[in-house]
Amino acid sequence: MPISKVGYNTGVIISNLKDFRMHANDFTQLIHEIGQRQALVKSYLAAPQNRISFTYKHLEDAVYSYINAGGKSLRPAVLMFCCGAVGGDEQIAIPAAAAVELYHTFTLVHDDIIDRDEMRRSVPTVHYDFARRARAELGMDDATADHYGLAIAILAGDMQQGWAASLLPDLYFHYGLPAELALVLVRELFRQVQITLINGETVDILQAETPVEQLNEQQVLDMLWQKTGSLYAFAGRAGAAIGLRLPTLEHPVVTAIGKFTGECGIAFQIQDDVLGVVGDQKRMGKPVGSDIREGKRTIIVLHSLERMSAAQRQFALSVLGNREASDSDIEEVVDLLDQTGGIQHARDLARHYVQDALEHLRILDDTPQKSLLRSWADFIIQRDL
Asked: What is the CATH number of domain 20-382?
């Protein structure tokens, strides 16, 4: 569970962060290193022995839609960095990295259904795209086509999830790691992480319908841990266990790295919420302001509503969760969130999580991969996409 950050000293955080602010060269190197690992994962997934076969073209296109669209591939890269940071050969971690990428993709496909989003990674979301294709290619009426789009997206996510599970045994079959380790990772990902993540998704839905006065910041942070932090924690623990060739996730080094990646995962989601309000839509690849239309109770919103005047609060609440809200109303709410300090508060909170997370890396010797993990942590709070 996440550590409460209530009552932190912003000035101290910013001062301490000066020691690890990312320089332009570090950023360029990090993106290069992530890109290399992304290429390795894509190559692995494209290999004939790892591909899955389809009898229906629409389902195949749906499964590969987000994979082909790109994405940051941070989770598989972080898993491989963690493997190397404990002295392991990153190549042996590729099956697990690919599994995490597929698993994350499945959650995006289903999350987009829940949020009723129409864009992801600058392409139409799966459910939206295949509703469109059903109308254009199959001649379905609107209601039938919309249902078809939802069905294809659900099935595509199910397929991606099963594909992910099928790759983890390759750690044993192709790379000779302990068979027990592969079993432990399957159990952890498809029992503990999945239960935690889906519970978090459920809480996120319910929080959007809960009166804001009944929510507090810690409840939102708990939800962010479940939805995002838990999978990042798994990526860190899996990478470390693979690097150490241990058939357990309970080793102190594995635990410390999992805490590092998990806390960074919460910071990542907080920053994602910031970018969802003030980011560049073209760079983000999805509509900015959609969280406001969906009524999400983000850290930003909770902090700002407490500091608005009665009139400002009434207006903000009339827009929050209103899917028919105009762009000008969304812009006005964004201005209010900025003026009342919600955006800056979220940024500072993300920085605090990263600062705490970095303490867990002290257990590691200095290596290039440890430096990459530090750069990744800094990237989380500086990124604009």
From this structure: 1.10.600.10
Helix 252-278 to helix 230-244 angle, to the nearest 10 degrees? 140
DSSP code of 8?
Answer: -
C-alpha neighbours within 13 Å on the C-beta side of residue 70: 12
Cα(16)–Cα(36) distance, rounded to whole angstroms? 31
**94-128: string of b/e by CB count within 10 Å (b at 16+)?**
bbbbbbbbbbbbbbbbbbbbebebbbbbebbbbbb
Burial 323-333 (b: 16+ CB within 10 A, else e): eebeeebbebb
Q: What was the pLDDT predicted at 264?
A: 98
- Per-residue model confidence as pLDDT tens digits over 246-268: 999 999 999 999 999 999 999 99
Helix axis angle, 342-359 to 368-382, nearest 10°: 170
* In the predicted structure, residue 245 carries a pLDDT above the cut 90: yes
Distance CA 255, CA 259 (A): 6
Which among 170, 153, 31 has a CA at the least distance from the CA of 98? 170
Q: What is the DSSP letter of 347?
A: H
- pLDDT at position 260: 98
For residues 359 and 201, give the distance between their C-alpha atoms in angstroms, rounded to a whole number: 29
Closest CA to 285 of 77, 113, 157, 112: 112
The pTM for the full model equals: 0.91
Residue boundaries of the structural domains of the chain: 20-382
State CA 128 to chain mean position distance.
21
DSSP letter at 193 equals I
C-alpha span between 245 and 237 (Å, rounded): 12
Burial class (CB in 10 A: 0-12, 13-18, 19+), 232: buried
Which residue type, as a one-letter code, is found at position 59?
A: L
